[in-house]
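User: Can you predict the 3D structure for this chain?
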Amino acid sequence: MATLPPNFTLLQVVPELETGGVEQTTLDVARAVVKAGGRALVASRGGRLEPALKAAGAELVQMPVHSKNPFVMAANTARLTRLIRKEKVDVVHVRSRAPAFSAISAARRTGTPVVATYHGVYKAKGALKRWYNAVMTRGDLVIANSEFTRDHVIAEHGVAADRIVAIPRGVDIERFDPVHVGSERVARLREAWGVAADDARLKVLLAGRLTRWKGQLLLIEAAARLKAEGRSDVLLLLAGDDQGRHEYRAELDAAIAGAGLEDQVRIVGHCEDMPAAYLVADLAAAPSLDPEAFGRTAVEPQAMGRAVLAADHGAARETVVPGLTGWLVTPRDAGAWAGALAEALDAGPARRAEMGEQGRARARALYSVDAMCDATLAVYRRLVAGRARAVA
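Assistant: Here is the predicted structure, written as structure tokens:
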């Protein structure tokens, strides 16, 4: 069981608490800190996960840390400085670039150890953007959410290898366990999504917010190519909301109608019950156009016993084993994705189930929330010990 120093208080700083890997990891770590006997504070704008954070025993401190306005960021530095001193924070953990400027400044003012998690491979076409991204490396330590991300940070920012720790994101192995998902939950989602229990088509789930780089349009085009070849035995389920990207949602609707795929593609909206969603599906897809720094949606379905089609770049090369737990597919190539869908179809239910079971075993061994949280709490212990030595 993970341990923490006596009277330990953690402050995590994250822009908001909506859906996503960053937010879920914030919640997971807060829960682990409380379970280990510490206090978990989260400075954030707030959002959908607030009730879950409260239920975990953590405390939300609302402030506009999502803002990129320089005046608001300066005010946030003062707010965070007061908070750190008032609550006797032992470690500050920042998870996004805009709040990092304020959080790291406040930590420096108070002499508090600070760690930043590099959650994504941020694009930088010029020196100014590279400087902006590098704020995530200015703490005492850096956590990378995959070996892919760790290699990127070292190459991009010249961070010394001993200052960066790779800790893969964790999946809640208990939640994402088919044994714990009752048939009524699956039936409820099937009804909500209009998927008949006897629908024999290959049901492919792409879970992720509706944004272009997640690859929804690519998967629609692949399905259109399959249909042109006379194969209409695929049903695409796109689970996620547009978070205000109404133009992109309209573009998806137009692409579906233009290809005559109204009966083969369903945009089902935000889904609260993702374990059941993976059981509605036969296969999961992660066709991201750009490399994923980790890609929880390639690991969660494996934990649920589902094989995965994933773009052949980024951390998917760590989380998906071709021929064993799924397929790696050429990124941005609709023809390759059509071919991969056809190959998954031809593999048949028994082979796909075998790959799903192999993926489930691998996910449980390598990507549990407990393993992620234990490794993260070890970083906190290291920072506290380092500060103790510095002041001794």
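The first helix runs from residue 21 to 35. The chain has a mean pLDDT of 94.
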